[in-house]
């Protein structure tokens, strides 16, 4: 099944919950409404003509710049979560994107959230923990959402564009 067919299939199944598509990109992607990501992923894994049995990667990116001119090029400040899927039996790939506000409700420090897909692909457990730790995405319903790379007492999320690295950590000068 080609990319256009997959997109059409998702639009017919989920309608307006498929919120965007970029078929011209080197790696084409389909955008999914945050609240629908779990249902879409379950569908992609279970349908006999799709069978996406592998989550190769899940990552998050902060689209923010303090410089208004640079931010204008980036678009609205946001966090994007990207899912790279693969079907071993059908040998096709698909990339999904979910766009979230940088802060839930516009309140600084309130992490944006979306449903976990760790029940669909077990490996998502680790990928979601990394996205939580480094970018600050709250995966709702995750069985063990805690830091995976930074220590438990680390403050902030190091891959956020406005993150300020501490001058000192446990008495050790960092800068």
Label the overall shape: globular
Q: Helix count? A: 4
- CATH architectural grouping: 2-Layer Sandwich
Give the ordered list of helices and strands: HEEHEHEEEHEEE
SS elements, strand count: 9
* Top CATH class: Alpha Beta
Question: What can be said about the biggest beta sheet?
Answer: 5 strands, mixed
CATH superfamily: NADH:ubiquinone oxidoreductase Nqo5 subunit
Helical amount: 10-25%
- Please state how the strands of the largest beta sheet are arranged side by side: 1-2-5-4-3
N- to C-terminal separation?
51 Å
Topology:
Layout: H1 3-14, E1 18-22, E2 29-32, H2 37-46, E3 54-63, H3 68-74, E4 78-87, E5 92-100, E6 113-115, H4 124-135, E7 138-140, E8 168-169, E9 172-173
Parallel strand pairs: 2-5, 6-7
Antiparallel strand pairs: 1-2, 3-4, 4-5, 8-9
Outline the structure in words.
By secondary structure, the protein is α/β, with parallel strands linked by helices. It has a single domain (3-173), classed as NADH:ubiquinone oxidoreductase Nqo5 subunit (Beta Polymerase, domain 2, 2-Layer Sandwich), CATH 3.30.460.80. It is 23% helix and 27% strand. It has four helices and nine strands; from the N terminus they run αββαβαβββαβββ. It has helices at 3-14, 37-46, 68-74, 124-135; strands spanning 18-22, 29-32, 54-63, 78-87, 92-100, 113-115, 138-140, 168-169, 172-173. The protein has a five-stranded mixed sheet, with helices on one face. A hairpin with a 4-residue loop joins strand 4 and strand 5. It is globular. It starts with a helix and ends with a strand.
